[in-house]
Predict the structure of Citrate synthase.
Amino acid sequence: TGLTALDQGFVNTAATKSAITYIDGDAGILRYRGYAIEDLAANSTYLETAWLLIHGELPTAVELDHFEDTIRRHTLLHEDLRRFFDALPHNAHPMSVLSSAVGALGTFYQDSLDVHDPEQVEISTIRLLAKLPVIAAYAHKKSLGQAFLYPDNSLSFVDNFLKLNFGNMAEPYVVNPVLSRALERLLILHEDHEQNASTSTVRLVGSTEANIFSSISAGINALYGPLHGGANEAVLTMLKEIKDSGESVERFVERVKNKEDGIRLMGFGHRVYKNFDPRAKLVKESADEVLDALGVRDDLLDIAKELEEVALADDYFIERKLYPNVDFYTGVIYKAMGFPPRMFTVLFAIGRMPGWIAHWREMNEDPATRIGRPQQLYVGPTERAWPRR
Ligand code: CMC
């Protein structure tokens, strides 16, 4: 028909206009609503940045207070949703649990399904931000065979989440400010990244006027894959395999370069960043700080640093402009905090939730939005005569 240009993987096609996040991949710049990621990571909180992404401006002190308080009052899961976890195997991957439970929120909040009612969109926003960390912590507790705790609304958002994961019924939970600030910072770094695969999924599903719970459940599934958010878990698996096998870092990098069994250096490379990923720079700083502050030593961090050094000096990686991305050092930090590798991508999902919501709302409010419907180039057989039988 002459209408379709092939752009496999959307390397060069904008699917939408957006005013949320600015990236300059060559200069290593990332800004949310105009604010540099470095400033936000140093000075803001997860919820303040969430408000910024969703509403376009930093909240006033009164707005932030009200936002935090409203979220605090929506953390409880319906008892039936708590029991939903009983039906799943204890060894379920928490990302599957997460997407299922978020999809299921749509069954509990059927009053929120009118996508064009701003009040309903607002209450769904609050419910998603408040309940995702609780769902995530229950997925973790379930895998450990431990009892679920109720949220503690005397704590901050991040401390509440940490307590739900690491607290138990037998002893009082003691807040660790080093851990809290480090996690807050990592969550901020993950909050948005414009039209990545999961956000594009959220927008595509949302463009059909599906509700926000179904749209974000789909986004969580897109994030699960090892080429996207699943890379943080895959990095740790890779580091552990190198350690356990005793293989040298140089030899492993050779195997990556030879594309042996299709292996990649996980946590390296990015579609957009071609000089460095500004998030990776901040995460690397955190890795040393957090491990020092927690008094943890980890051989895997040494292996990661050695891998980075060897790769960055190698023509294969230089020619292809492959640098560490946000996922390269996060796993080592999450591990030091006490999270099992299967929870790493879940932490990414909690981080990314505000971005998914902001994009869904921007898509939903934009009168120019049309149902997403890519074209294809058909390469199958031309018309064939039905064989006489
Ligand atoms: N290790 C080894 N080679 C690589 C890697 C890697 N991590 N990444 C890309 N390459 C090679 C690739 O084989 C190709 O080489 P050639 O030209 O010889 O065929 C070339 O570099 C271009 O790669 P590509 O796959 O066409 O690049 P892409 O933009 O389609 O993919 C990517 C981007 C992030 C999926 C990819 O770099 C990758 O698979 N990285 C590892 C997984 C990872 O860390 N993902 C997290 C991304 S950042 C956070 C997030 O979004 O979740």
